[in-house]
Amino acid sequence: MATYSCRTAKAMRRPFDSLFGRLALLVVGVLLLAHFAWFALIRLQRSEWQARYAVEETMFLIEAVRQHVERTPEQPLPSRVKVVPDTPGVASPADPPVPPPVEHFLSELEDRLPPGTQIRAKGGNKPSSLWVLEPGFKRWIVVPLQPLRSPRRPLDRTLMWLGLIFTGAVLSALFAAWQLQRPLRTLAQAVARFGRGLPVAPVRERGPLELRQLTRGFNTMVSNLAQTDKDRNVMLAGVAHDLRTPLARLRLRAEMLDDVKARDGVVRDVDSMTHIVDQFLVFAHDGTDRSEPVGVDQQCDRIARTYRAVSPSAHAVCTDLRAGPDFVLPAATLERVLSNLLDNAHAYGAPPVVIETVRTARGFTLTVSDQGGGISPQDLLNASRPFVRLDPARGGNGHSGLGLAIVERLTNRLGGECRLGNHECGGLRVELAFPAQSGTAQA
């Protein structure tokens, strides 16, 4: 559980480690590449389109002048065009070389005109007129040569529209990606709550087919496990209640024995069985702790003093309480947690047993540690599982393997986390981390 919280915090600090972050990065990258390629293609083809348009315009003008001369020669031509008789030297080909765009334009125009047509561009390095002599037509047709405009700067209207389209596409794609990952995010939050032992409501099935199937499977699994847990708790509670009356009668009869040694042995065994029955009832309890919230520091100090007074032969219990008055928990839950941890330290640890509380940036921690042999690393994962005894020889001393399981369950119901580990100097260290608002949680 602590590992999961650490991973969640790291994911919060690394936004592109989430599904939405990676989808957003992929969408923006693909759209940016597509728009850049499209813009580059437009820029490369613009000169070609301008040349074709100029050729079409010039072809139309030449044809209009020729038909005008053939059909209505008596009417004057517009001032921008004229017709010059083909006399020697009137259109000399010895003009300077023209720029590459004009040369390309003349080549395209020559391909469109009838074979054998002569074309001259007049005006030096910046031609201003075009002379055309078609076969069978004894006059030069002179038309203005439209300057071929070079492509505009990159920051032109095309780029502006491209930016607007790109922005709209990115926003739409990000909205779609957000809607796509929302069901998965909800399911991940439900899995996190379920992994911490908190109650989980059925997750609504939505999204693609595979995600709906995954959600349906998760809901079914949670429902089956909840029913199994409920059946087990009912069984444990029933067995515990059925055993209480016979144990009370057995203790009463033991008190009547004349043999003191036998009487003490039977009473001790009955007390051990009663302790196991009580643990069954606590573990099977699945209701709400309605006891008043109390200050953890004050309650820990009181329980430690009571523990020392009631069990003088027990290990020394020390306290280091620094959480402050804001750290509150339900009284009954806190007492159950501390009694189980102190009993566990008394049975398997070594003095001194230390109860510590401290305030952290995310809430509060309550720690109980001892100086015993601790738990081997390979057994730490199983130590808080129900009915697990790490030492098989402990089966006859009133322990059922529920102590740490009860502590973890009660802690989870308050929205906290139970972390098991070993002290640097040896001994078991049980750290309970609670959020800032844990006193009103259910347990």
TrEMBL record:
What SUPFAM superfamilies does the record tag this protein with? ATPase domain of HSP90 chaperone/DNA topoisomerase II/histidine kinase, Homodimeric domain of signal transducing histidine kinase
> Signal peptide location in the record?
none
**Enzyme nomenclature, EC number:** 2.7.13.3
A Gene Ontology term for the protein's cellular component: plasma membrane
What's its catalytic activity? ATP + protein L-histidine = ADP + protein N-phospho-L-histidine
Bilayer topology reads: Multi-pass membrane protein
Domain called Histidine kinase: residue spans: 238-438
Its keywords, alphabetically, are: ATP-binding, Cell inner membrane, Cell membrane, Kinase, Membrane, Nucleotide-binding, Phosphoprotein, Transferase, Transmembrane, Transmembrane helix, Two-component regulatory system
Pfam families on file: HAMP, HATPase_c, HisKA
Listed transmembrane segments: 20-42, 159-178
Please indicate if the UniProt record lists DNA damage as a keyword. Answer: no
* Gene Ontology MF, one: ATP binding
Can the keyword Transmembrane helix be found in this entry's annotation?
Answer: yes
Could you tell me which residue ranges the HAMP domain spans?
Answer: 178-230
Extract the InterPro entries matched here.
2C_sensor_his_kinase (IPR050980), HAMP_dom (IPR003660), HATPase_C_sf (IPR036890), HATPase_dom (IPR003594), His_kinase_dom (IPR005467), HisK_dim/P_dom (IPR003661), HisK_dim/P_sf (IPR036097), Sig_transdc_His_kin-like_C (IPR004358)
Supply the enzyme class, top level: transferase
Intracellular or extracellular location(s): Cell inner membrane
Name of the protein in its database record: histidine kinase
Origin species, per record, is Mycetohabitans rhizoxinica (strain DSM 19002 / CIP 109453 / HKI 454)
